[in-house]
Amino acid sequence: MTIDELRPLVQTTEKLLGQGMTPQALSRATASGELIRLRPGFYVGRAARGLGREEKHLLSVLAADMARDSPVFSHASAALILGLPSWGLPLRRVAVSAPGQTSRTRSTRLIKHHTVPLGDDDIIDLSGLRVTGPERTVTDIALTAGRDAAVAIADASINSGLAGAASLERAVLHSAGRSGVRKARVAMGLVDGRSESVAETLSRLTFTDFGLPEPELQANIVDTHGNRIARVDFLWREYGVIGECDGFGKYFDGATPADTRRRLGMEKDRDAELVALGYRVLHWRWADLDQPRFLAERVRRVLYAAAA
């Protein structure tokens, strides 16, 4: 759900009382779970329990915005508002930033407050919220998050067109003197906006970490007549090996059983065409990314077997 779709779900104490609910009934509804308290004075209905982790965080963002005087959302909260992936980012607290000469951070139960150098050009208005812009958001995450999450966010921002590689490099350059700038520069050196998902980014980082040959990304495979038959995630052209990182959504996201069977059948037919052209096709899934050493060894075995 989008910010605009989530906004009507947030209800204030004043609104509920205005609809005829008594303070005692409000307390009973909260105790029974009929209402969920996001923060003092702000509630959502029990149906919100079925929402995903990202949507629940955005509800907290909306409540924080209504409770405070136009805060500037930043870091992981800004990433979600911008539509960037949340993998590897902390979503327990809403992140906000305020301008200050000296960088410092303090946390409450609900909010993580960042005091940082912050200019007007770092802030945009989006869906009625004040939020750090794409370049600043990616930089803040690169300064504070782990390498893999930072690269995944940067890849996604470039791939989606929110930011350019050059503008991200400049933003990190302008962050000189801030804590974490060295690791941010390392992360930015690994960014490649051709990665189309977090899983592809993590796969690419695995290849780098374990010294595997660098593949081509989003490569087109053509038949003997020059007709394109596939666009593949990774191609080691000199080895004749294709790598495909399969997220479950590729097959099952919103699909009926018949659609799922059709998608799986189409992929099987496509793989058969690729094998007929002389390629070896290697598939892996999200679960394999949790064990990067084993994934790297699988790829290595296929590459070296192809070379032999």
Notes on the structure:
With about 300 residues, the protein is an alpha+beta fold. It folds into 2 domains: about 190 residues, no CATH class; about 110 residues, VSR Endonuclease (Endonuclease, Chain A). It is about 45% helix and about 20% strand. A hairpin with a 2-residue loop joins strand 8 and strand 9. The longest helix has 20 residues. It is globular.
Features:
single chain, 308 residues, alpha+beta, Endonuclease, Chain A, 2 domains, six-stranded mixed sheet, four-stranded mixed sheet, 14 helices, globular
Structural class: alpha+beta
Strand line-up of the largest beta sheet: 6-7-5-4-9-8
Strand content: 15-25%
What low-confidence regions span 5 or more consecutive residues with pLDDT below 50? none
Q: What would you call the shape?
A: globular
Count of structural domains? 2
Distance from N terminus to C terminus (CA atoms, Å) equals 50 Å
The largest β sheet comes out as: 6 strands, mixed
**Total helical segments:** 14
Helical residue percent band? 40-55%
User: If you compute it from the alpha carbons, what radius of gyration comes out, rounded to the nearest whole angstrom?
Assistant: 23 Å
Which sequence of SSEs, written as H and E, runs from N to C? HEHHEEHEHEEEEEHHHHHEEEHHEHH
Average pLDDT reading: 92
Task: Tell me the total number of β-strands.
Answer: 13
